[in-house]
Amino acid sequence: MDEKYLIDTQCWLYWHIAPEKLSKEQYRVLEDDSNEIYFSTVSSWEIMIKHKLKKIKLPSLPFRYIPDRIKKDNLKVLPFSLDNSLRIENLPNHHADPFDRFLITQAQSGDFIVLTDDPIFELYDVKLLM
Fold first, then answer.
1. What tens digit of pLDDT does each residue of 48-75 get?
2. Domains assigned to the chain
């Protein structure tokens, strides 16, 4: 096992729908079976909401697509905990997106490297792979 990575929702969507939008390093990490890649329950919540609002389109319904992809890609599911939610209070307000703020608290509490293309993440105390 090399590292523990937490994949941002947008990068997860890119990986499956538009892999050319990932950096070469991100793609290499995702395809390397020795890395532990975590998918947050926060991302499933975000995808479900955005799909319902017709902001994203998936190859199949999210309640099928998400678990199928998680299983196929051998990802670990990272639940959002009470500790994660309580950390939000001390998180600087650089990012307005609540889903990204939740992912940041998960990354901080679990010592994850976040796979993201969002430059606002750089304003937080988290390890990144962009």
1. 999 999 999 999 999 999 999 999 999 9
2. 4-129 (3.40.50.1010)
